[in-house]
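Possible regression after last week's pipeline update?

I re-ran a chain I had predicted before the update to compare outputs. Posting the input and the new output here so someone can diff against the archived version. Not blocking, just want to make sure nothing changed silently.
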Amino acid sequence: MAARSLWAVRRLVQRLLASSAASEGRGWLHPFSTATQRTAGEDCSSEDPPDDLGPSLAERDLKLKAVKLEKEVQDLTMRYQRAVADGENIRRRTQRCVEDAKIFGIQSFCKDLVEVADILEKTTEYISEETEPGDQKLTLEKIFRGLSLLEAKLKSVFAKHGLEKMTPIGDKYDPHEHELICHVPAGVGVQPGTVALVRQDGYKLHGRTIRLAQVEVAVESQRRL
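New output (post-update):
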């Protein structure tokens, strides 16, 4: 079997050689000749693209997308840094405004109080200069006039700045506005649980209690403490 196969191969080679010789005699190039192989190689080199022509279209697209994303990241980073800087500047300005408000918030109130101090000082000077020794009546009259003027000015300043004195007598006891000092028996016309007497005035600033009024609250006689 192997001998027959070898014989068949030899016959095929002989036929190919014979055919090649005949082709060369007629001026043709056999397809398996060296010239033919060289020409075929040259044709292939001219038709097929070389392997080192550069990156493919997909690679170029990826590079372009990467460059675009990098630019976007840089832009967003710069925007973020500017936003952080602006926020820090706003925080500092706000803090400075709050500190200024704490320091100078009562500037107008203090300016009005200075006028009260001026009245008190002038009254004191007037009494000490013009009062004759031993004239107590005249002295008391001057003091009274000076104190009356001082009180009127203080009330004007308080009203101007929203400072109001509470008058809780007869009102129901409120722990948010009143400080209980003691209980007293409810008298005629005084309801139990209401304010009967004010020991110290309370004040509100624009409706907010800034000092509780010290009060005595009326109760039934058996509940007196």
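Follow-up from reviewer: compared with the archived run. Residues 57-104 form the longest helix (48 residues). Marking as no regression found.
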